[in-house]
Amino acid sequence: MRCPKQRFAAALCAVALFLPAPLCARPNPITDDIVRAAVDAYGKVNDYTATLFRIERVGGKPRKEERIGLKFRKPDSIYMKWETSPNPGLLNQGTEVIYPAGKGRDKMTAHLGGLINLVTPTITVSPTDRLVMENNRHPVTHTGIGYILDLFVRQRDRAVADKDFLQVYHGTVEIMGRKTHKVEYIMPGKAKGYYCYRAEVYFDGEHKLPIRIVVYDWSDEEVERYSFRDLKVNVGLTEDDFNPRSRAYNF
Questions:
Q1: 17 found inside a domain
Q2: Kind and range of the H or E run holding 12
Q3: Residue 22 lies in a domain
Q4: What is the domain count for the chain?
Q5: In a domain, 10, yes or no
Q6: How far is 94 from 106, CA to CA, in rounded Å?
Q7: What's the pLDDT tens digit per position in 55-78?
Q8: DSSP label of 42
Q9: Of the chain's two ends, which shows fewer C-beta atoms within 10 Å, N or C?
């Protein structure tokens, strides 16, 4: 018969088998190289165009996928046109939004689509205006590959420093007709202030940039999915591409 100390030790071992193992930020040369290549590639980007497919959960409710034409020029000039928008709110089909970068330019101009255009064709407001943010998780200034990549890298670097982080390379995956490297990241606990619990990032095999990111909250529910289709970099966008008075637009 075992003594009390032996029985206690055996019980501790049994409990340990069922405790979740801590995340581990072991060096992963594959994922490290993929992220480093993405940062280097974006550093060489001056501008780009793409079709943005966006799905967000707002106020706990999932919204339907939106298709948005996107133009971006560094540092942060943005043009967006909602090609399809099956959700309620101001940003419906036909809406155009411009946020031109530059000194003293801190507002976005929106040409609204749908019937509301007959009443209020154009508005100029702050990107964080309550009406604009009502059905969106992010302001227009958070749009684009650069913002997503910067946020992701900062969160990743912090998690690696915390040594409580899991990164998984899932190999090559084809999405939107492109071969990508799928990398999954699982962050430390919610109490540490991380943006999300889990993220899946798809890095394009040719131009190295992330063309899809899927974000999960602390209940492991999808809350954001951003996909950049038909991405074309360094196309030579000009000031006119971000001018509401341009004849190419309907402002």
A1: no
A2: helix 4-18
A3: no
A4: 1
A5: no
A6: 23
A7: 999 888 888 899 999 999 999 999
A8: H
A9: N
